[in-house]
Amino acid sequence: PANSYCPAGAKAPLPCPANTGSAVGSLVCSSLPGYYGPDGAAAAPCPANTYCPPASPNLFNCPTNTEAPPLSTAKTDCKPIACFYGPAGVVPTQCPANQYCPAASATPTACPANTFSPAGSASAAACVALAGFYGPAGSAASPCPAGSYCPQASTTPLVCPDGTGSSVRSNDLTDCAPLDGYYGLPGRPGTPCPEGSYCTGGMQRACPSNTASAAGSSKITDCKARPGFFGRDGDSAAVCRADSYCPGGSGGPAVDCPAHTTSRAGAAAVTGCLPDENYYGPPGQTPTACPAHSSSPAGTATVAGCVADGGYYLNGGDVVACPEGSYCSQGATAPVSCPAKTTSPKASDAIADCLPLAGYFGPAGVIPTACPENSFCPAGSLAPTPCPAGKVSPAVSSAAGDCVAPAPAAAKASDTGKASSDNSGDKAQSSKPAPSPPVGVLADSSGKSILWSYCAQWRDQKRTMQADAQKELLAKCMQQECAQSLGYQGNFCKFLDGNGLCYTYKTAQEWCRDNPTAPACNPQPEYPTCRGNCAGQWQPMSGARVVTGANSEGDSYSCTCLKNCACTNKYAMNMHECRCTSDADRKAVGVSTDLDQVVFLRNTDKSLQCACSCGGKIGFAS
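Below the sequence we write its predicted structure tokens.
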């Protein structure tokens, strides 16, 4: 029977040896499939990675890189080992890159999406994320998000350093570049862009001139005009023009100051807009005009800064005309009474407007003298007017009507003879030189010339003064003479005394006019021969000398004057501010150039006033 054998002479079948078998009627037992050995002997099991067909006396090795389990019976039991693939029973092929081949793979298996594996990979675990992707091994990988980087085989994204960023699918630290608003090198933390610059592409760039930016700026258009400048974002800014202000920031033109205000170039805020001259108010607001007959410098904040014009005074917030009998210089806050026995018209602006009352005479601005007997003194008289021949008047007479014929008296023979002699003398006198002027016309009883008050002080006191005080006093003297030359009180100034100074009284000028050959009458060479008012021909003194001692003279200096003008230094110690009656009056006369650089304010009626400077010292109105 099967699986037994019957040798010759056998009385009964014998069982086949271990791991062998036979067919019915077989004489010999051969190894079973998966076993090997000689016929008739017990067969050995076929080991792993070999195969043993039926009745194999020997075992057979599997092809290279294949494997088979123990007791394999055919070559086709030999299948590729892990990392190889191919048909069973033949030498397999190594698993290619980006695929994996488990044991017994007939074909390779592709790695999941966005992963890779080296050649000869055995399992899905060998499939790791490609550079720029991340995920667990053996699973499909995801793109690396922006702001991070994913080297090959990353299971999670790596965040870029502070201040840097990256694009999607970045795979290296150097892909982390500085963000806009930062600067630095790739792969290193970015440095925040400082104020006054902008940062893009990892580079720091300075803002254009006169612009600024906030920290962390990333575009040139983040550079905006600084306060006090204006221009388009990202362009160099220009200085804010005068009479406007520029807050800075996003483009746009300068903003005009409110009406009647001005600003200097470069104003950064509306508070840089200050009131114009003759207006007052807080900075940056529309100001209020100063009251009529007053003025103010630019930038005045309150009505108290509005200075009353000459002839007016500031009373609280009102400007009031100076009353009769007083005078108000520019800036007055109260009227000043005229000296005793003088008066002035309403709105007078200087003590020189204070003229003697009727019955008195003398220079303007001083206590006058009572009109003597046998003369009369109308209001404003500089000198007494003698009564007509043969008439007399009491002291303090004020009109020609006060001169009357004297009371009749008995005539004496001796007087008759004397009169006859005097008449003959008068006839003889006509061929003699001009007579001496009466006392009180050209000179006083001591023989000193009758001059304006400042001129007399300069003549008599200059030797006791410092050089600058001498010059300032002469400038005030020239102002008085200049006003006289313009026709002040109907006067004129042609004839000078021995010091080159004008005789003050109109009667003195008229006496010299009528007696031009008199030694005391020295006409100014600038005058043409004229009678009446020679206004406009007067020139201030030139060639004056500083007196340094009792009998020594120092440097020479000259004077210059503005006619129909008045000046002040109230608001600027190094700059004279002047007002004139008209533009035509703004040209100084005289050889000095002291007044060439004054600042002229708006025209105001300054008729019959003068501003003079001698040797650089101006005689400001008092």
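The chain has a mean pLDDT of 87.
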